[in-house]
Write a sequence for this structure.
């Protein structure tokens, strides 16, 4: 349901909470993407972690475009898996709704998935979650492990933990039984 150009509906945080407005754009053609599925996944993340009525854009690109962005904004002349561009809240302090853009290289994500024994769909979800946390202001380089803890908690909650990994203590408990 739309109310003042914002969707309102049932979410995990209560009835009538404004849902985040999310857009998924696929600017690469190498891999077929389930934009609706990825958008639904990101909606769950946004409803659980994001501000009420927030908005963000997830853009899927190839390595060439990601390399240009990584060089332009981070000074690294190579593609990377995910970049997050948080909106500049100082432009209009009253409008806190647009969180920013998440850009994911589908090619790099696919290579990482193959290396980890996973699949592209799972890897895109992991990177979307990671990028969304950056839009919320979390930084794994200076947050004293807080971002990592939140990210792993949400990976477990969303069923996107690392493939083939056992939970903490399981292998130890199995050895003790012998």
């Amino acid at each position: 349901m739309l109310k003042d150009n914002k969707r309102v509906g049932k979410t995990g945080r209560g009835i009538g909470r404004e849902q985040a407005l999310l857009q998924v754009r696929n600017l690469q053609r190498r891999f077929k993407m389930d934009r609706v599925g990825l958008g639904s996944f990101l909606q769950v993340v946004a409803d659980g972690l994001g501000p009420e009525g927030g908005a963000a854009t997830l853009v899927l690109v190839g390595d060439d475009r990601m390399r240009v962005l990584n060089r332009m904004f981070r000074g690294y002349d190579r593609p990377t898996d995910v970049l997050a561009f948080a909106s500049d809240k100082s432009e209009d302090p009253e409008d806190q709704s647009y969180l920013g853009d998440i850009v994911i290289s589908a090619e790099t994500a696919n290579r990482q998935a193959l290396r980890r024994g996973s699949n592209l769909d799972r890897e895109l979800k992991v990177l979307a979650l990671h990028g969304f946390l950056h839009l919320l202001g979390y930084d794994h380089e200076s947050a004293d492990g807080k971002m990592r803890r939140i990210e792993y908690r949400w990976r477990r909650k969303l069923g996107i933990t690392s493939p083939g990994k056992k939970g903490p203590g399981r292998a130890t408990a199995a050895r003790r039984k012998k």
The CA atoms of residues 57 and 101 lie 5 Å apart. The helical segments are 35-49, 63-74, 106-115, 120-135, 146-158, 170-177.
